[in-house]
Design a protein that fits this description.
Blueprint lengths: L1 H6 L3 H26 L3 H30 L1
Length: 70
């Protein structure tokens, strides 16, 4: 929900965006599990964690750059 919260301006949009993110995480995690012969649950969690940390890290970096320029 945290990723969806940043990209939505209403509760309904946030719910739809969260469902889309979950679908993406599950599909990507299952694909990794299939191609690399890994456990599917762990692959889904690892995929979701990686994407969350990447997006959150990028937001932190962009916010710091914006504050330094101001």
């Amino acid at each position: 929900p945290m990723l969806a919260e940043k990209g939505a301006d209403s509760l309904g949009k946030m719910c739809l965006l969260a469902m889309a993110y979950c679908f993406l995480f599950c599909l990507t995690g299952i694909m990794f599990a299939y191609y690399f012969d890994l456990p599917s649950g762990a692959s889904i969690i690892a995929t979701a964690s990686f994407i969350f940390l990447t997006v959150h890290g990028a937001q932190v970096l962009f916010n710091r750059r914006a504050r330094l320029r101001a």
